[in-house]
Amino acid sequence: MNKKPLEQIKNVTNVTGYRQVSLWKREDLQHPQPDELAEEVPVALVYNGISHVVMMASPKDLEQFAVGFSLSEGIIEHRREIFGMDVVAVCNGLEVQIELSSRRFMGLKARRRALAGRTGCGVCGVEQLNDIGKPVQPLPFTQSFDLANLDQAWRILTTFNRLAGSPAVLTRPRGSG
Transmembrane residues, as ranges (predicted)? Predict the structure, then answer.
């Protein structure tokens, strides 16, 4: 995993959620095209001092992310049940430290569970930032595919929102997705 130096994520209030990159296309290797790449960092949601979950997220608008997550997971019923919130840069990512009402915190502790992520990167669903980065065994090489099929998959992805954050795409050897 490409770890971000702490100094790059310290100023979390002045981020865009993406960065400018140069896109080199095979048909024109002389002129790179500007493009934008969604940036994500490991973000731990910490309720009343207890780490609940870590997810990959854009460092932009983390307070809104935390409120939305808390509402959708039933941790809170209303925004006013969050008494305070701080975003803090730590060595492996960012923590959103959330202060809940006592009633809501007791409910969270009663039904606490590990959240299983829907991707295979190994970040989503871990409880603490220290759990990130454990060694992963490489998979054996099993097949290859025509690069034109990769270009086709890229064209399909670019029809969506420019920063849709599509970290994975299925491309079969014969080009069907």
Answer: none
**Residues 39 and 72 grouped into a single domain:** yes
* Distance separating alpha carbons of residues 148 and 152, to the nearest angstrom: 6
Same domain, yes or no: 131 and 148: no
Same-domain pairing of 129 and 157: no
Question: Which residue numbers are catalytic?
Answer: 121
* Tokens describing residue 74: 């039933």
The total domain count for the chain is: 2
pTM strictly above 0.70: no
Residues 109 and 166 in one domain: no
20 with 82, same domain?
Answer: yes
Q: Which residue has the tokens 């990159």?
A: 21
Three-class secondary structure of residue 147 per DSSP: helix
Q: Which domain holds residue 53?
A: 1-136
> Can you tell me the distance from the alpha carbon of 76 to that of 82, in angstroms, rounded to the nearest whole number?
8
Question: How far apart are the C-alpha atoms of 69 and 41, rounded to whole Å?
Answer: 16
Q: Where would I find the H helices in the chain? A: 6-9, 62-72, 102-110, 147-157
Could you read off the pLDDT of 87-97 as tens digits, one per residue?
999 888 899 99
